[in-house]
Design a protein that fits this description.
single chain; about 325 residues; five-stranded antiparallel beta sheet; two-stranded antiparallel sheet; about 40% helix; globular
Length: about 325
C-alpha cells in the first residue's frame, strides 16, 4: 500500500511543481475519521517534511469533505491565522482521492504531552491568549468565500442534535432537560461567521514557543462564532485539569482578552456560558454517533467504541454547569 501511495503522492506533487523522492511514508495515529500520513520529500539539494490528510470524499452527518478543509485553510492563512501551508489539493475523482498535502508543522498536538511535559510549560502561560487571538482572525473571514459550507444557527443545531439523540432510543433525563434549557437561552446576536467547529487541544499544534497551527477542519460551518469559544471551554477538553477552563491550560479571561484584541464584538464570560452547555450537549450526541458507527458494524473501531463510553461524562458535566456552579 505504501509503495502505491508514494507513487500517487509524487505524481500529485509533481503537478504542483514540487518534485522529489518520497521517503519514510508512515501513518500517524490520532485521527478518528481521516487517514493521516507523514512523509519526507527529498530532492538533490533539499529535504522537506509533509503531511497527507485523506478522507473518503463522502460528507457525513457532521463532517465536510477533506478537499474543502484545504480551501478553508488556504483562505484564512491570508488573514494571519495559524494554519498549515497547503501545497496540493486532490478531489474525489483523482487517484489520491479526497485529500490534501500540507507542509509539516513542528510541534505537538497530543493534549497529554502539551499539558504535562516540561517542554511546554512556558508556552502554556500565553496559549489561551494566542488561541483567542487566532480564532478571532478566522472569524473575520468573508463567509461569501465558503458557499460550500453548511449554515447552522444555534436553534437549528439544537434541534438537529436533539433529533439525533432521540433516534438512538436511549432516553437521558439530563439531555431532555438540556434541550429545554438551551431553547430558552440567548446565544448572542452576532453576524454569521466561519466557525471551526472543533477548536480545542488535539486540534492545535503547540511547540515550546506557543501556538503554531490550528488543524482538523472537518466540522467547519457558517454560524455564530461564539460556538468556538464555548467548545474549547468544555470540561471534556480539559483532560483532567478541570480548574483551567480553557482546554486545561488557561483562564477564560485570557482567552477573551486575546479574542477581543482582534474582534470588533467584545465577548464577555456570560456570552460563553450558554455555548459551554451547548458544546457539552453536542459532544454527548457526537459520542452517541461514534458508538453507533461501531455497534452497527458500519465501522469496526475500538476508538469509536471508547468514545461512546463518554456519553455519561457529558451528562455529569452538564449537571455541574447548570446546578452545581461549575465553570
Amino acid at each position: 500500500m505504501t509503495e502505491e501511495l508514494s507513487k500517487i503522492l509524487a505524481q500529485k506533487l509533481d503537478q504542483e511543481s514540487v518534485k522529489g523522492e518520497i521517503l519514510n511514508l508512515e501513518p500517524l495515529t490520532g485521527g478518528a475519521s481521516k487517514e493521516i500520513w507523514k512523509f519526507e520529500l527529498r530532492s538533490a539539494d533539499s529535504s522537506q517534511r509533509y503531511i497527507l490528510r485523506r478522507g473518503s470524499g463522502i460528507e457525513g452527518p457532521l463532517a465536510i469533505k477533506t478537499s474543502d478543509e484545504a480551501k478553508i485553510q488556504k483562505n484564512v492563512k491570508k488573514l494571519g491565522a495559524c494554519v498549515p501551508e497547503i501545497v496540493a489539493v486532490s478531489n474525489i475523482d483523482e487517484p489520491l482521492g479526497d485529500a490534501y498535502i500540507m507542509k509539516f508543522v513542528e510541534g505537538e498536538s497530543i493534549a497529554r504531552k502539551i499539558l504535562r511535559d516540561e517542554e511546554y510549560s512556558t508556552a502554556l502561560e500565553g496559549l489561551a491568549f494566542e488561541c483567542g487571538e487566532s480564532i478571532a482572525k478566522i472569524h473575520q473571514a468573508d463567509i461569501k468565500d465558503f458557499s460550500f459550507l453548511p449554515k447552522k444557527s444555534a436553534a437549528e443545531q439544537i434541534n438537529d442534535l436533539y433529533k439525533t439523540y432521540v433516534s438512538f432510543g436511549q432516553p437521558s433525563p439530563v439531555f431532555e432537560y438540556t434541550y429545554l434549557w438551551l431553547n430558552d437561552q440567548d446565544f448572542g446576536d452576532l453576524d454569521n461567521a466561519l466557525v471551526h467547529g472543533d477548536f480545542r487541544l488535539g486540534n492545535i499544534i503547540v511547540n515550546s514557543d506557543g501556538l503554531q497551527s490550528i488543524i482538523d477542519w472537518e466540522l467547519a460551518h457558517i454560524g455564530n462564532p461564539l460556538q468556538d469559544l464555548g467548545w474549547i471551554c468544555g470540561n471534556s477538553w480539559r483532560f483532567g485539569i478541570t480548574d483551567k477552563v480553557v482546554g486545561g491550560f488557561g483562564d477564560l479571561k485570557d482567552l477573551l482578552n486575546g479574542y477581543n484584541s482582534v474582534s470588533n464584538y467584545q465577548v464577555t464570560a456570560d456570552n460563553v456560558k450558554a455555548w459551554q452547555v451547548f458544546g457539552t450537549f453536542r459532544w454527548g450526541v457526537i459520542c452517541l454517533i461514534q458508538a453507533s458507527a461501531h455497534l452497527t458494524g458500519s465501522v469496526n473501531s475500538v476508538e469509536k467504541a471508547a468514545i461512546g463510553r463518554r456519553v455519561s461524562e457529558t451528562e455529569i458535566d452538564i449537571v455541574d454547569l447548570l446546578f452545581l456552579e461549575g465553570k
